[in-house]
Known about the structure:
The chain is of the alpha/beta class. Helices cover 35% and strands 22% of the residues. It contains eleven helices and ten strands. Strand 9 (256-260) and strand 10 form a beta hairpin. It is globular and about 55 Å long.
Amino acid sequence: MPSESIVGSAVPATTAATAATSGAAGDALGSRMLQPGLDTSHHVVLYLDAISVSFDGFKALNALSLTVDVGELRCIIGPNGAGKTTMMDVITGKTRPDSGSAFFGQTLDLTRMSEPQIATAGIGRKFQKPTVFEQHSVFENLELAMSGPRSPWATLLARLDSASRDLIAATLERIRLARHADRPAGLLSHGQKQWLEIGMLLIQQPRLLLLDEPVAGMTDEETERTAELFLSLAGEHSLVVVEHDMAFIGALGGKVTVLHEGAVLAEGALDAVQADPRVIEVYLGR
Length: 286
Ligand SMILES: Nc1ncnc2c1ncn2[C@@H]1O[C@H](COP(=O)(O)OP(=O)(O)OP(=O)(O)O)[C@@H](O)[C@H]1O
Ligand SMILES: [Mg+2]
């Protein structure tokens, strides 16, 4: 693996997969938060350039370009059908773009990696509907999320080492479910299930987290707690959050990208994009 690969260079799938699990870590941000093999020496964790995706001739993404920095908390807003979820599908390998490039760090070409390779390389995705194991306890859900390819039974029968127990305990605190560790996940509120699923992603220690409408259906109180959680994660992780809830976006306080018809319409602080006449016309003024 060349140490100075250039963004835009072709990385064969096999090389990209190898790079996801090996290689030297070490940049100015400190090794604590570095996934081995992820080169973020230019402080960019996600690089999308001129991505286009068509469905039956309809351009869901139309030369979309977007860059997310290491540790950034980026919010994506835009009207229904703007391409927000399709963008996440491209980043996670679910949808292949017709053209354009998508890189994770400097060297991992997402358009040439499979969905499992991308997840293993350190991109975690939260879908809108919570998908926790309802019969299992909150603790067991986190344990299962940590197991990777092992079967659920093998995981539950195996003894956890102390480092794994510490990681689960820290994650329970972080998602405010420490008091509920032994409860079946099925008994949690909708908001608590969402937090548990976020915990199940966090336990895999992703570098980049993609969250599609994470506070939909939450109470105001749960929404506020979720903003606090995301703010506590930024820096350590990079987050890309798609939401329609403007109060929530305001509480996160990060840079906002407005998508419209598959491309970036505006980008900047929330108050600046909210004052942009083009944004008001296509989205906020409706
Ligand atoms: N698999 C697919 N096949 C055909 N059309 C699709 C597919 N996925 C998305 N689309 C279309 O692409 C466009 C963008 O959809 P997308 O789901 O990315 O929008 P969105 O910004 O996430 O909207 P919302 O805010 O409603 O979630 C829509 O017109 C949608 O109907
Ligand atoms: Mg969507």
